[in-house]
Structure formats: structure tokens, C-alpha cells
Amino acid sequence: MGIYKTTDEKIDRLTNDHISLVSLAYRGNTDSSIQYQQNDTPDGGLSETVQVSPNQTVILYDKNGTVLNPSSDIPSATIAADLKFTTKNISKIETVSIRANSGETLLYRTIIVKANFDKHIKTNIGYIRLLVNVNQLSESLSRSQVIIITTMVSFWLISLFASIYLSNWYQRPIIDAYEKQKNFVENASHELRTPLAILQNRLELLFQRPTATIIDESENISQSLTEVRNMRILTSNLLNLAKRDGGLKVEFSEVDASYFEKIFKNYELLAENSQRHFSSTVTVKGPIKIDESLIRQVLTILFDNAIKYSEPNSKIKIQVDKQGQMLTIKTLDEGFGIADADKRKIFDRFYRVDKARTRQKGGFGLGLSLAKQIIDACGGRIEVQDNQPQGTVFIIKLKV
């Protein structure tokens, strides 16, 4: 085992010097059963190349395996039971667990070697057992294992929760996109289903009266044409939204106040034909940089909504003002207004404040969604507020 590598190397060094092991056995032991005679009686001195420590114990055996030096640390009964002498494991390092005199269980690395002395040394020592206490190493290993396992479990739990969190975080935009696509398809199918059903019913009515003239069926034909126009507008808006989803290509160019004035002259004619009163103010000095076609499209969407959702003889006003680097466009009407709960949703695709009324007016809930996408692409923002005393105000802010 790697943890006992240093201890085993130390054991190998000690077992190469049997005289030092005998000297170690003599320390604290004057048992007369040990016969060891050299020129001088061992005085406890050890070889200069071998260092011993208190956690080392030496047990001496005679040639028959009888213990010659009872240990003060290890009871004789324990030596007889747990440290049975056998020549099968000579020179093999083992790990043994024994009970000490103090009552605690100690862990040792141990080895039995055959005693080998010079011929002039007279002794009854046949075998030497060296024991090195490794409790501290074992406890250190146990603590390390606990720390490693605790750390691994902690990091595993952290990584698990982090993976779940990151997975949900990364999936959120995918799920949102899927839900939007699902709603988009469902709403588009619903919007197309209605004009198709009307067309089918009107055409079936025509077949019920095959001899009728065009004048007789003018209402059915007119209604059919109306639904066809609605479908054309809807499919055109859907295509525009699909293009916008692929990414808007914004092309800025310099314009001045005349750009807005020309657009608003056309709005005056449209408002007059719709029995609305239109007015505009343009406070723009010098050139500004905008995308002409995209901003014109947004203005047309807001103006068209103001016409649709306001009563005849009501007022519609558009204000264009430039302060510093900020261009502000306000569209004010005196229409039905928008509830606070609906203000957060009117820029969603197919969302309509009053579905019955907007269907009657020919709305599909796509215009404001398209307008917001354009303004976002141009680096601006659009918001909606209440007009006083009645109506709605759309505010566009752009850096120019």
C-alpha cells in the first residue's frame, strides 16, 4: 500500500541490521532468558545508520518459536493469540491488529526474519519479529478518506444542482421559442380558418342558386372578395414577420424634416377620407440618420391603428421632436383606449384587446408586433400610454 511505503522501507533497513534489533529488544528488558554474548554486552547502542522510534517493538524468538522477551506494550496472551509464530511468512511484511495493555486496538506493520549473526556471537535467538505502529498513518488515511469522500460528494451535489440549473437556464429560451412558434402556428391557423370558412359558405350559397345573376349574388361576391383581401393582408404580414425573424437589415440614411412632412401629407388625405381630423408637428432641425423604409412602415402601422380604433370626427395627431441625439415620435388618438393589463401584451403576435371589435375592423394583431421588432432592430424602444381624456399614445424613442 502506498501509504505504508515509507514505513516498509524503514522496516527493510532495520531488518538488515540484526544487532540493532537485538539492542532495541534489550531496551527496557533484562530478561535472563535471552542469551546474547559478544566481546562486550550490548549497551543499547544502535548502528549509526539505523534510527529507531518509540513506535517500534521487537520480539525475539528462539529456534523453536518461543518468545524470549515479553513486551511491555503487548500482552503475552496477545502475542500468543494474534502474533502466532510461523515460518510460512518469513521476510514478508504484514499488517496485524492487536490489543495493547492499555486496552486499545493498535495497528502494526510486522515482519519475521531469521536471526543472522557472526559466528563468534553466541545466542539462543533464532528469529526476530519487528513491529512498527501505524495507527497515526491509518487514522490519517481514514481522515483523508472522509475528507475526500465528503469533498467528492459535495462537489457532486454542487455539479448536479449546477447542471440542473444550467440545463433549465439554457432550455428556457428554447422552450420560450417553441411556445412562441406553437402559439404563432395556432393563431395563424385560427386566423386563416375564419376567412376560409366564410369563403366556403359564400361559394356554397352561389351553388344553391345557379341561375342567379351577378347582381343577385353581389353581396356574397363582395363578402368573398373582402375575405380574400383579409387573407392577402394576413399572409403578407406573416411573411413580413418571418423575414423579420431571420434578422432585420437596417440601412441608415440622412433625412430631414421634409421626410416626415411628405408622409404626413398622405396621412391627411387618408384621415379626411375616413372622417378623422389629422394634425402633425415636426420639430427637427438638421439631418438625422434613420432607416427610411422601416420607420415609414412603423408610422403607417401606428396611423392605421389610430384610424381603425377611433370614432369618426375624432382627432389623430403625430408629433416628431428631436432633443439632442434623441428623436421622439408620438402618435395620439382619441380611440377606445387600452387597459393596463393589455398594455403588456399588445406587442405580442396575434394579441388583440377586443377580438370581436378588431376582427370587425380587419385587424390581426400583427402590426404592433412588427412595429416593435423594427424599433428594436433600430436600437430604439416603443411604449404605450393613456391619452387624456381618452385614447392611446404610442411613444417611440430613437438615437439619431
From TrEMBL:
Domain of life: Bacteria
Catalytic activity: ATP + protein L-histidine = ADP + protein N-phospho-L-histidine
EC number: 2.7.13.3
A single GO cellular-component term on record: plasma membrane
UniProt xrefs under SUPFAM superfamilies: ATPase domain of HSP90 chaperone/DNA topoisomerase II/histidine kinase, Homodimeric domain of signal transducing histidine kinase
GO MF terms held by the record: phosphoprotein phosphatase activity; phosphorelay sensor kinase activity
Pfam families: HATPase_c (PF02518), HisKA (PF00512)
GO biological process annotation, one example: cellular response to phosphate starvation
Leading EC class: transferase
TM stretches of this protein: 146-166
UniProt-recorded name of the protein: histidine kinase
Native source organism of the sequence: Pseudolactococcus plantarum
